[in-house]
Amino acid sequence: MKKMARSRSNRKIAGVLGGLSKSVGIDANVLRVIFIILLFPTGFFPMAITYGLLVFILPNEEDVIR
């Protein structure tokens, strides 16, 4: 597994799910669908807060030393 960072090329909002997809080797669209599916039953807040925290915690991919 690679070091996780926000993607600069595969992003819709902030690149969190694009970066996660690169690090675990799953298609980003699959992760986006899973995120949306989990967003509604959890009442928006847990998933939205997690995404928001990851935006600030994860570095951009060009900031990660490879």
UniProtKB/TrEMBL annotation:
Q: Which residues cross the membrane?
A: 35-58
Assigned keywords, A-Z: Cell membrane, Membrane, Transmembrane, Transmembrane helix
GO cellular-component term (any): plasma membrane
Record the organism. Answer: Falsibacillus pallidus
Residue ranges of every copy of the Phage shock protein PspC N-terminal domain listed in the record:
2-61
The record's section on InterPro entries has:
Phageshock_PspC_N, PspC
| Compartment(s) where it occurs, according to its Swiss-Prot or TrEMBL record | Cell membrane
Q: What is the lineage of its organism?
A: Bacteria, Bacillati, Bacillota, Bacilli, Bacillales
Query: Its topology with respect to the membrane?
Result: Single-pass membrane protein
The protein in question is named Phage shock protein C (PspC) family protein
Pfam families tied to this protein: PspC (PF04024)
